[in-house]
Amino acid sequence: MSELNTNSQNTNGSGESHGAVAELDVEGAVHERYTGGAQEMEPQLCCPVDYDPKFLKILPAEIIERDYGCGDPSAYVNEGERVLDLGSGGGKICYILSQKVGASGSVVGVDMNDTMLALANKYRDELAEKIGWGNVEFKKGKIQDLRTDLDAVEAHLAEHPVNDLESYGALDRFANDQKVSQPLIAEGSVDVVVSNCVLNLVRAEDKSVLFEEIFRVLARGGRAVISDIVADEPIPESMRNDPDLWSGCISGAFLESEFLGAFEQAGFHGIEILEWQSEPWRTIHGIEFRSVTLVAYKGKQGPCMEGKQAVVYKGPFKFAEDDDGHRYPRGQRVAVCEKTFGILRKGSYAESFVFLDPLEAIQDAEPFDCSRTVLRHPRESKGMDYDVTTEAADDCCAPGSDCC
Which residue, 6, 66, 371, 402, has most beta carbons within 10 Å? Predict the structure, then answer.
């Protein structure tokens, strides 16, 4: 974790600013602390995390000791996936991910701290040989701007120094052209975005753009798995003005009641808390700060088409409601569009529903009105002329019973 913070304001987690703190050089404080943290272990930056030891065996002590996170999002990544690690720091999570996704997967780490990037790249060839494949690369960029390749911009600047308005304009045009023609991370190019205690270091006015960028780079059906620090109460200005608390992931922490909402506002669905630290990592002036890991999915956008499909919510609650406002009364056949049917069959949704396909696939599907919740009559799925009579099934009774 070493994403540079250029914040001059703080947020309560929703992007709302709470007053200027111009007297505090947040960017300098964070850069200095994490540059030092890449050279020497900084215990106060670390929230204890239990990683699977089998993935740590091959990692150099230097990388393990200089990793600063609060969770393990790599635990929720699968073989063959394309993964992006935001604020990759010394590369620990990236090298764990490399082992998990296998030779068919890929891992990209993005960070903007040169010292951290140097540490991550130092062992890249050695670890590729030990793992058996080289599927990790590190790129220099801001996590709230995954279009701008800072290495490319710096290379251009070295050849074309800025010394007047004309050269400044040329640099600006180069950067804008690069964002379009060769973005650092292309749209829809990754299956999973992970981040380990870094989003809280992005300045308040960039938070909404940060979530938009995460959404942009994910492929349809992809997901974000994020570990970060949340606060159970709003953070007072006195703490927001403290450079040590800011660089220590305290002053910029999300308000826990609004952390998930930030993903919802960005267009994600299926947002779920995977890990919630029961005991706070730190408590300052009565405010509790703890680690939370969540997952959020991309893919609810798009047309709704009629497939004569239905789902039955199994319970235990009286009803469930999804991110599109669909309401699922317990035990009832609810009509859903093809898109929603597919969404519910994936991830943690699947265990909560029974899925009912039509007997015959629908050809030339028509638009489905997803703005309302309606029940599906069984005949809609079976067909209005369905008139089959069958014998009792041989296996209708439980094993060992004599009911048949």
Answer: 66
